[in-house]
Amino acid sequence: MSHDPGLAQDRTAADLNGVAGMYLLLATGLAYPGPGGPMGAWETPAFRLEAAARAGGLTPEWRDAGIRLLSLGDAVIARRDDAGMEHTRLFGPGRKPPVPPYETLYTAAYAPTARHSQELADIQGFYRAFGVAVTPEAADRPDHLALELEFLSLLCQKEAHAVHAGMDEAASITRDARKAFLADHVGCWAGGFAARLEQHAAIPFYQELGRTLGGFVAWEMDRLGVKPAKMAHDPAPSGDGDDRMECGACPMNGMAHSLADGESFIPRQ
User: Fold this and answer.
1) Tell me, which fold does domain 5-256 have in CATH?
2) What is the Cα–Cα distance from 110 to 106, expressed in whole angstroms?
3) pTM (whole model) above 0.70
């Protein structure tokens, strides 16, 4: 009998919701901190309560990391103008930001345009298979890291629902998709992105976001037995081999989906 090491870790829906909460927290941290933006949720009691509840399903190490990130986020909210300028400096938009948040600038840095198109199509294929799509309001590419992290959060939530309902096959299918998306996409470049973010960030929140992001994705891959399927490189600078940087403001909540519409766990053909 084959053994999935991840099954020994995510034993309950609470465990999976904890992982989902951390992915969502990391995605939210990448959002532009302007008034009314997605990171505004950081201030709301509902967000804090949800994050705290989900953190109960994490190991103490990652629960503490999430709480530390929330605490540092308070300083970002309190000084939105300074944080906003730092966000733009790090992620764009603009020419040659030091930490561009797009996968294909790392995994297909100097490849022909066709390679970029293939990578983007594969990412969109994952999204469509589970009934989600990038919303028009997001106005961004599907390979933005915030969208990819939001998708992983959604997969964990779907798997948690399946585990709670005793739907073993659905849980297995959703877990396999999570592992594949880590292997083919997030796990290939999130570590390099996180290291660059920690190196280039000038305020503690973004330094901590880089450390937490890199460590958490590496932890997930290790316990799930996932290896990256391709190599990432230093990113191609915007305007030097790639003019497709569209929006650095980060499309958090950029996916159209519903967890209450019958839970389509089986990938669509």
Assistant:
1) TorD-like (1.10.3480)
2) 9
3) yes
